[in-house]
Automatic annotation (TrEMBL):
<dbReference type="InterPro" id="IPR018097">
    <property type="entry name" value="EGF_Ca-bd_CS"/>
</dbReference>
<comment type="subunit">
    <text>Monomer. Interacts with SH3RF2.</text>
</comment>
<feature type="domain" description="EGF-like">
    <location>
        <begin position="89"/>
        <end position="126"/>
    </location>
</feature>
<feature type="transmembrane region" description="Helical">
    <location>
        <begin position="307"/>
        <end position="328"/>
    </location>
</feature>
<feature type="domain" description="EGF-like">
    <location>
        <begin position="128"/>
        <end position="169"/>
    </location>
</feature>
<dbReference type="Pfam" id="PF21700">
    <property type="entry name" value="EGF_DL_JAG"/>
</dbReference>
<feature type="domain" description="EGF-like">
    <location>
        <begin position="209"/>
        <end position="246"/>
    </location>
</feature>
<dbReference type="GO" id="GO:0032991">
    <property type="term" value="C:protein-containing complex"/>
</dbReference>
<dbReference type="GO" id="GO:0045197">
    <property type="term" value="P:establishment or maintenance of epithelial cell apical/basal polarity"/>
</dbReference>
<feature type="disulfide bond">
    <location>
        <begin position="46"/>
        <end position="55"/>
    </location>
</feature>
<feature type="disulfide bond">
    <location>
        <begin position="116"/>
        <end position="125"/>
    </location>
</feature>
<keyword id="KW-1133">Transmembrane helix</keyword>
<feature type="signal peptide">
    <location>
        <begin position="1"/>
        <end position="27"/>
    </location>
</feature>
<dbReference type="GO" id="GO:0005886">
    <property type="term" value="C:plasma membrane"/>
</dbReference>
<keyword id="KW-0677">Repeat</keyword>
<keyword id="KW-1015">Disulfide bond</keyword>
<keyword id="KW-0245">EGF-like domain</keyword>
């Protein structure tokens, strides 16, 4: 109904665009005066929703199967058909869909039901009730029961891969046929097998060789070459060395003295990536001037920093100890000076008030006052 409604809306929008015949132009004889128009003589062009040589036939709704129209975009069903597109047969039993002498009953909405005779089943009663339906499926491990659509006297089983037997009860050893290639190790995993491939091979059956050079292992412009026994070899430029041409070669001079060093071929273990490098010869040249100029210092930078830190810590300890002793002595000196002044004042006061009498005075000094500083003039108790 959605498509039909959309088409009707489009029709309503297009119908007002009726183009009359151009003034003074005679259209084709018989051309519908309303549904047709012309721009040139003896022409008959149809308005939207109309068709035919004279524009006197309406256009039915798109998709209309067994129907026609009286007005554009309609779908008027023929006898025996219903539905928005007239595609549902009211009398489906007239085609005799039910087989094996079964009875067809129409449901009224275009559908039907088959009442099967004894021994048959299915929508159209085309399946015979054989052993698989009557007794159920005896197949195990996902096997499919087969009875020739009910006509076979006994049921049989169609087994999936990895199983065998009358009822698919036997688990077949999938590795018995040695499916793994190139020395791969086969492992039976129940419903199939798995191949453990040796170095240099890959794939379900180990049938594909690993292309090591695809990942571009050679660096610094080195050329990668696959080896017949597996692995790869990097052919380095003269400026670089190493299994993957990773390290730069060291070229220095020694006052006309040439020292040749040979790099060994890289022989990996059997199960490693068989990387190797070609044999190279390098010349090491060192001059005496460079040896003197590049002589190592007595102390490294880290050792110099360590000595500086230790020196600073030592200075701090010495300054701290000296400060503590100085402040302790200073405090004692100030206390002695204070009480010496006090004693002189008291002494003068007593001498004036004694009028020549012989008096004795007991003085209690604080803990930090040293008595030895006053024994010259006073007697200790």
């Amino acid at each position: 109904m959605g498509l039909r409604a959309a088409a009707l809306i489009g029709c309503c929008c297009l119908l007002p665009l009726v183009l009359p015949a151009a003034p003074g132009v005679n259209c084709k004889t018989g051309c519908h005066p309303v549904n047709g128009f012309c721009e040139f003589p003896s022409e008959c062009r149809c308005q939207p929703g109309w068709q035919g040589a004279l524009c006197n036939q309406c256009v039915p709704f798109p998709g209309c199967v067994h129907g026609g129209c009286a007005k554009p975009w309609q779908c008027l069903c023929e006898e025996g058909w219903i539905g928005s597109l007239c595609d549902i047969d009211i009398h489906p039993c007239s085609a005799k869909p039910c087989t094996n002498n079964s009875t067809c009953i129409e449901t009224g909405d275009g559908g039907y039901i088959c009442l099967c005779t004894q021994g048959f089943t299915g929508k159209n009663c085309h399946l015979r009730k054989g052993p698989c339906i009557i007794n159920g499926s005896p197949c195990q491990n996902g096997g499919t029961c087969v009875d020739d659509n009910g006509f076979a006297p006994h049921a049989s089983c169609l087994c999936p891969a990895g199983f065998a037997g009358n009822f698919c009860e036997i688990d077949i050893d999938d590795c018995e046929s040695s499916p793994c290639e190139n020395g791969g190790t086969c492992t039976d995993i129940g419903v199939g097998f798995s191949c453990f491939c040796p170095h240099g091979y890959t794939g379900k059956l180990c049938s594909s060789r690993v292309i090591f050079c695809t990942s571009g292992p050679c660096e610094n412009g080195g050329t990668c070459s696959e080896l017949p026994q597996g692995g790869y070899e990097c052919i380095c430029k003269p400026e670089f060395v190493g299994a993957t041409c990773k390290h730069p070669s060291k070229n220095t001079s020694l006052s006309g003295v040439n020292t040749e060093t040979n790099t060994q071929n890289y022989n990996p273990p059997p199960k490693a990536h068989h990387k190797s490098v070609h044999q190279e010869h390098q010349v090491l040249k060192i001059t005496m001037k460079e040896t003197i100029q590049n002589a190592d210092p007595l102390l490294s930078k880290s050792q110099v920093i360590c000595f500086i830190v230790l020196g600073l810590l030592t200075c701090l300890v010495v300054l701290g100890t000296t400060g503590i002793v100085f402040f302790s002595k200073c405090e004692m000196w100030l206390a002695n000076a204070k009480y010496s002044h006090l004693l002189r004042k008291k002494k003068n006061f007593l001498l004036k008030s004694s009028n020549g009498e012989n008096l004795s005075v007991n003085i209690i000094f604080p803990e930090k006052i040293k008595l030895t500083n006053y024994t010259k003039n006073y007697t200790a108790i």
